[in-house]
Description:
Blueprint: H1 2-42
Amino acid sequence: xxxxxxxxxxxxxxxxxxxxxxxxxxxxxxxxxxxxxxxxxxx
Length: 43
């Protein structure tokens, strides 16, 4: 039972890490879009 509980909390932690990764990707892509827009404005 303890092993199962430990595994369960690890799964939740992994899901949290996964959603943080997706959030980081969204931030990166929106930052890239702003950079591209700024570069285009400079041209």
